[in-house]
User: What shape does this take?
Amino acid sequence: MIISMHIGAHCTNGAQLMRGLLKNKAVLAEQGVAVPPLAYYRDMLPQIMKKVKSERATPETQEMLLDHMLDIDDCARMVLSYEDVICMHPFIFEKGGFYEKANFKLPWLRNVFADHEMEFFIGIRNPATFVPEAFSFCGPSVSFEGFLHGVDVEALRWSELLLRIRTVCPDARLTCFAYEDTPLTWSQVMRDMTGVGQMVPMSGGLDILATIMKREGMKRLRTYLHTHRPQTEEQRRRILQAFLDKYVDEDALEEEIDLPGWDDALVERLTEAYEEDLEKIEEMEGVRFIAP
Assistant: This one.
């Protein structure tokens, strides 16, 4: 069996991804793809990870967990999404690192499903919006300084995290997508995670686009896609981009950043560094990047 898992990062639509996949649960089951709800493994998976740690889970432990999670027979792939699997929001920069717990948590996770193929999916996001959005989930007891633990946000590079993941879990395939691209790439993210082809009908591929497009535009887009069905994913994205250019909701794109010491100049520098990092990620060996 192939275990396909969205492991984060936080604030990259992980919950939306699971909702979209669950909308297609019946269709995917016909393709041998299981999509267990997070409630099936939210508590049990971390417990087993702590139990096995650096040891491979026994076949009996793996079978017990899969029996608990699966609700279909003849399953070829299981799709999971658990953005807290590495850590929760307040601990992203724990001890001055950046998702440092990935160094041992992901090998633990890999050992839980030791007898199966595994692929990690990770969404990344411009630190200029990722940091304030992640901090907003930390609660009133965590100060911004306490959240960052002295980390220099201008030194953040997702490529370095991806390299660490490849190093500690070299046999787990790694697919990456940018949060900012998801209005156009969401359908491909869903299909790549589930391993189904373009001919399998799936709903939810426009869910992210709908959050930044005017209602009139979405209505016209759906009608157009119904009457002019695209033959390739590339053709589909060109259509989406054309409608987005015409019907974008500018207000929905506005992201107000109000953090101590942050100004427009910092946001611009972070964005430029992120764009350079994306170019590096697209060329990384062992990392598949879903480009728009």
Summary: The chain has 13 helices and six strands.
